[in-house]
Amino acid sequence: MLIEKDIVILGGGIAGLWLLNRLRSAGFAAVLLETSTLGDGQTIASQGMIHGGLKYALGGTLTGASEAIADMPLHWQRCLQGRGDVDLRGTRLLSDTYYMWPRSNVRSRLTAYLGSKLVSSKTSEVSGESVPEFFKGHLQGPLYRLHDIVLDVPSLLHTLGEHCRPHIYRTHCSIDHDAQGNIRTLTLDNGCQLKARIYLCAAGTGNEVWLNVLKPPTVAMQKRPLQMVVVKHRNPHPLYVHCLADQFSSTPELTITTHPCQDGSIAWYLGGELAEAGATIDAATQIQRTRNKLAELFPWCDFSGARFHSFYIDRAEARQPDGKRPDRDSVIVDGNVLYCWPTKLTLAPALANAVIEKIAALGITASEGNDSPLTGLPYPGVALPVWDTL
Ligand SMILES: Cc1cc2nc3c(=O)[nH]c(=O)nc-3n(C[C@H](O)[C@H](O)[C@H](O)COP(=O)(O)OP(=O)(O)OC[C@H]3O[C@@H](n4cnc5c(N)ncnc54)[C@H](O)[C@@H]3O)c2cc1C
To answer: Class of 94-149+223-316 per CATH?
Structure first.
């Protein structure tokens, strides 16, 4: 049986789900195909930080990356309140604040920088009662508050998925395509053939599969590896902080978020320079480095009963000439396929705007076509976060 839709989205991470929500609200007959569970890749592994890019500006000037991302926390907050382009009511907010904690040797430079007109409205120094419990009595030097937020990613995926549940399917698909890399049809696990006017490849590292088959001449992907660390312990005070080391760079030495686990324990999730530098070393060395770093930064904290885990994961982005992080989200059109990488969770709304603009430029409008759900394919469900599976 051949079923026709306006748009097929391949991949159910933040990019695919945000796109599906936007496109269906705009009246398109759009469906999403996912091979595994929703978010099973970078999104469920992300730290859930929705940030305004201040950390990218730490080099001293506002870069392209920090400008592109600056309005995003406000955008997401409107969505969380049900006043945005996607309704995120029901998504759990883990923290409405993120902190930045400089080591003594960068304090004076950072204080001067944060006081400058460029960024002064984006931060404030916290003192007295406003100091988070974790740091009380232990702070030497300033702690800054950023207007960034941290979301519980499983609940974000759940919210986005539920809005469009009848149009999200777990299936593999085989592709029929022409010599120019245009998709003709997809054959799904239920035997149906699916034909769309536009196909959006939003499968993170999985976009490589489509690139290898369709061979678009001007599209390529890069992967930047990490070894993230999870520390499960019973310290009751949540911590959301960038620890800035002696070098003044856009990657903090440690980026910490706190997540509640299904077994009642608390997980600190550690990224930043620790995870970037850890990508090329073995797990035992990474865990020893983490233990040393935590003992050095937080000597008042007892980690004796803590459990440490680490895992490797790649960030997937549109390829850059220098291999560095792209300044913003990427959408590249090749025939009837749009290749999409948000670059950051934070930038998913910007990615969706860019896709909608490109679809309009291609002259594709919502049709009165067949919008009834497909049959015989299950809903994929939401991926489990790493701290509940390690
Ligand atoms: C460790 C880590 C921490 C991060 N922390 C943050 C953060 O705090 N804040 C921030 O803004 N950004 C963060 N990021 C970046 C952010 O997570 C990613 O940019 C974003 O999640 C990418 O989303 P995506 O939907 O493109 O890809 P993914 O989340 O990887 O989703 C791809 C989906 O496609 C599916 N799929 C794969 N192959 C196929 C196929 N062939 N067909 C159909 N479906 C397929 C997968 O199962 C998956 O569900 C982090 C990234 C990492 C790796």
So the answer is: alpha beta
